[in-house]
Amino acid sequence: MKEILLVEDDDVQAFLVERAFRRAGVANPIERVSDGQEALDLLRLRPEGLPGLMLLDLKMPRLTGFEVLEAIRADGRTRRLPVVIVTSSDSPADRERAAREGVLGYLLKPCDPEQIRCLVQRELLGFEPDTEPSR
After folding, report:
1. What are the structural domains, with CATH classification, of the chain?
2. What percent of the chain has pLDDT over 70?
3. Cβ-contact 117, 25 below 8 angstroms
4. Using an 8 Å Cβ cutoff, are 107 and 84 in contact?
5. What's the predicted TM-score (pTM) here?
């Protein structure tokens, strides 16, 4: 079962995103890091390979989500890593930039479990749904 990497600096938001994924029936393990630099360090040093999906916040300390995304896309090893933006920003400019960077999705916080379920079914078929979503 492929792991999901959550890059989120806010503890409450991280909890809410994880809960939304569980309620959507996504059973894959979720590993969390607190900022963009930590995410890049983990991806570079990880001996067991890349996660199956990265959930990436845009507004974080040290490196923004877009800086992380640019670094991922510039590295041949991580270039194809599936990324979903999970953010509070509903800015059209942010949405357009994310689309240009080839993200799979753009989810607004708080995440809607039904929206997550649709994204997983449409784009991330390698992820393991629970038999029944949590409530």
Report:
1. 4-123 (3.40.50.2300)
2. 87
3. yes
4. yes
5. 0.85
